[in-house]
Each structure stands twice: as structure tokens, then as C-alpha cells.
Request: fold
Amino acid sequence: MRLVCLVFSLSLLPCMAVAKDFGTWGDLYPVAEPDMLQTIHERLTELQRSGRWDEEMTAFKERTVKHSQRPEPVAGIGKTERYAERFFDPSVQISSDLKDDKGRVFARKGDVINPLATVPFAQTLYFIDGDDPQQVAWMKAQQPETLMVKVILINGDVPKTSAALDSRIYFDQGGALSRRFGLTTVPARITAAPSGLRLRIESIPAAGSAN
Reply:
């Protein structure tokens, strides 16, 4: 099996500056703005002294747990009302030469590379709204043909949906995957197309459909 690593990097261009003494213009005064670290230290000391430190930490932990269990819903995703099928080509055009750890070029600028030609897509992705009982029931009825399956929420409570489906659940944080695949409605199912070089994206109504 041939392993090809595609590495995309951003180069930071250093800025050169030349300093020159232009003398003194006007009167000089000491900086009156308080030191930021000192301000933070004083604030924390005050919280501890007043007994509010434990309250603030408890509230922070509760907010963190709540957000991890129910992240912000992905905006702009509706409910699938009718079946639709389309295909997604993940090919990318290389913007600069790519080299391996020995400096050998394995992809040149301008080349179009399809990662599926090297690493087959051997899983099924399901996107659903965990707050919709109909979609959860639809997910329970699914019989994927791949061993690897991922259920991805665009909305809902992660622990509750995981318990309902007796499965590990993922959440599309910030809608990155939904945007990548151009999803506008759920349920949606993503599998490898018959050619193996594209992805098959299906929008499937949950009502009256088990497939």
C-alpha cells in the first residue's frame, strides 16, 4: 500500500523594520495605564477574599459541561422533506510543490490530487438533528454497509442522543463538515460512490423511510 502525505503549510514572512531617533516632540509623561497582570492578580485576590472564587469556578465548570454536552446548533440546516442525491469530488489543486522528509518532490504546484485515489473512503457518515425524535428513530433503523459508522449531530444533546442510539456520537462543531459537504438539510448520509473517487451525498426524509 502506497502512503502519500499531503502537507499544507502557511509560511510566516518576517517583517524587517529600521529604527531611527527623531528626537523628542512635546512633553513626556509616565504611562498611567495599570499593568494587566497586576490587574488580573488583584481581581483574583479580591475574588478569593470575598469568597466568590468558588462560586465563579463552579459556574464556569457548569457552563463548560453544558456547552460540551449541547454545543451551539449548526445554523442554516433544515429538515429533509424529499430525497436528493448528489456527488462530491474532494480533489484539490496543489498551490506549491510538496516534499517528503527527504526533500523529494511528490506533488508539484498545479497538480490536482484526489485523496480517495490513495485512501479509500470506507465509512458511512450520518448527519442528524438529535432533538428530532423522528430522525433518531430513523437512525436506529439504519443498516450501513460499512463497518465504520459515524453519527454526527448538527443539533441536540450529545449524551442523550448517544444513550438513545447506544453509539458514540460526534458533533459538527461550528458547522465545518456541513459547509464542506454543502449540507442544507438532515438527515443526510455520506458514503463512497461506486467509482470510489467521489462521495455520494444523500438527503433522506426521516418520515416513512428506513433506508
User: Anything to note?
Assistant: Residues 1-25 have pLDDT under 50 and may be disordered. The helical segments are 36-50, 53-69, 133-140, 158-165, 176-181. The chain is about 25% helix and 20% strand.
